[in-house]
Amino acid sequence: xxxxxxxxxxxxxxxxxxxxxxxxxxxxxxxxxxxxxxxxxxxxxxxxxxxxxxxxxxxxxxxxxxxxxxxxxxxxxxxxxxxxxxxxxxxxxxxxxxxxxxxxxxxxxxxxxxxxxxxxxxxxxxxxxxxxxxxxxxxxxxxxxxxxxxxxxxxxxxxxxxxxxxxxxxxxxxxxxxxxxxxxxxxxxxxxxxxxxxxxxxxxxxxxxxxxxxxxxxxxxxxxxxxxxxxxxxxxxxxxxxxxxxxxxxxxxxxxxxxxxxxxxxxxxxxxxxxxxxxxxxxxxxxxxxxxxxxxxxxxxxxxxxxxxxxxxxxxxxxxxxxxxxxxxxxxxxxxxxxxxxxxxxxxxxxxxxxxxxxx
Length: 360
Ligand SMILES: *Cc1c(COP(=O)(O)O)cnc(C)c1O
Hints:
By secondary structure, this protein is of the alpha/beta class. The chain contains eleven helices and twelve strands.
């Protein structure tokens, strides 16, 4: 608290990201980064962009990246918005598209940045409980009537959901979007490349649908900070209005060069996602053998609990062995560990350590 702070700042509860510890030989499975590096072509493009050109501002409209993404997804460039990480894209969406008199609806167990943005931008919110099996119940997101509180002002959810990893089928997403024509439905597909079907296929049909992606997970470029949204040109224009009232140049020259080259290297992208999916399937089987209940995952992490061991204690025991996973001290999920899919060797180290801890 400081008497120099604004009332808004006094009232904020900021997001706490997973830690980035500075410890050598750490098995770091806590923030859903990709275990293998980005496309070598992206790295080469970034290196090439480090030169005299850095004297100049980057393209404020990021046209090359928008065209590359438009081509990749079969949409028009005016249906694409890009930002400094998808967190920034989400932030602009909260202000531009999700703030209304009616409440913004989202799952109670979900990306914990959503309530933070509600606080920052003064967005009225309603958190809707997941079902007991941690799935999103479509019926809960359909308008119940026309009265106050019976319809959403807007809707946001990750698919696959985080931190559960559970995937909603595209038909289920479409039912929510189709039933809420007056509300923007934002689908945060940070993990969709690890086995889900993207709702981008529906954007030409539904002007209220906005799909947000990131380069941080499936493209192994978390350090570059690039995210994007795809939707109707009217939604994109709303985002551009906020962006151009905030920061004209959110994407620097290195980010633009690396992101374009990553999108153009489709073969590398597909292969590296498949590698993570294969490791996930092995890890799930091994965790189940150790007695863990593992939620079905469509992401590059798994959410698992052991019936006989406390989640916080397991996380602490792993940490003592220099293995870091994510544990949330939140209602309903405090017995779970969220474990990022690492390399095969990192996962083997984890399974070995869990075996020893459980035998103690
Ligand atoms: C990681 C993540 C993001 C943020 O990604 P950045 O592009 O790195 O900002 C957004 N949404 C969800 C659900 C995530 O897990």
